[in-house]
Amino acid sequence: MHFAISIRIVVAASFAAGLVHAGKVGDAIVQNNCHNKVYLWSVGGSVGERQTLEPGDQYVEKLHYDDTSGGISIKITRTKNGLYDGSPQLNFQYALTDHLYYALSAVFGNPFSSDTLLVHPSVDTCNNICWVERDWTKAREQTETCSTNADITLVLCAESC
């Protein structure tokens, strides 16, 4: 929740200054390396259609600015209706202004608490986010920044960080 407040402030200030990025942008990618399918929804000012990722599948969306919410949260659950039934939910969040801000958070528990989660940007000078199995609570407030042309990839059930 801290991420949402921080991102709203950054986005509001950037929007007011005319800094919302309109050039070449990267992609947000979710790679399912888990042994089971997962479900995700892209949520900004509205909720996108549910996507099902089988083991080995990837979801890709072009990074974009949402003028209603200011940012996007790709919400991931292990249950088919997890967005609506209170299931543990992983949120892969980003906001696109003059920079790319990205973070992970979990609500109602972490559906991947016994797995390693890795967010790695395609630009080497930007920081990874890593949640190691059973140790994810320490990293809940980590928000990173990168250039807007970077791809950011969330690897579910990563082998390591």
UniProtKB/TrEMBL annotation:
TM stretches of this protein: none
Signal peptide annotation: 1-22
Keyword NAD in record: no
Stored InterPro entries: CetA-like
Keyword Endoplasmic reticulum assigned: no
UniProt entry keywords in alphabetical sequence: Signal
PANTHER family: DOMAIN PROTEIN, PUTATIVE (AFU_ORTHOLOGUE AFUA_5G01990)-RELATED (PTHR36195:SF4), DOMAIN PROTEIN, PUTATIVE (AFU_ORTHOLOGUE AFUA_5G01990)-RELATED-RELATED (PTHR36195)
Protein's name in the database: BYS1 domain-containing protein
Species of the source: Penicillium oxalicum (strain 114-2 / CGMCC 5302)
